[in-house]
Design a protein that fits this description.
The chain is mainly α. Helices cover 71% and strands 0% of the residues. The radius of gyration is 16 Å and the shape is elongated.
């Protein structure tokens, strides 16, 4: 069910759920290459679920229109994924470092 004030972007949430499902499949394949890639894809899948829930206003208070809880949770998940990508940039591009 949608949040009471989901707005016109609530359908994007379903596309985010589909992307999360595809990332779950990629997670299984990526764990075979390197555990770090598998962790990254699993985190991206969780991020897409949280962003989709935020688009559908499922993480915000229905009675308070100024509640930004869902925005903060989705933003922190996006920050976590971007930091993981930054951490992987150096070993992948240069061949130095560990890909555990």
């Amino acid at each position: 069910s949608l949040g009471p004030s989901a707005g016109p972007f609530h359908l994007i949430g379903f596309f985010c759920y589909a992307a999360a499902w595809f990332d779950c499949v990629f997670t299984v394949m990526a764990f075979r290459i390197a555990k770090m890639f598998g962790v990254l894809y699993a985190t991206v899948a969780v991020m897409f679920v949280l962003v989709g829930m935020n688009f559908q206003k499922l993480m915000s208070d229905a009675k308070d229109s100024t509640d930004k809880t869902g925005d903060y949770i989705a933003g922190v998940s996006c920050l976590l994924v971007s930091l993981q990508c930054f951490y992987l940039l150096l070993p992948v591009m240069t061949g130095r470092g560990k890909l555990v």
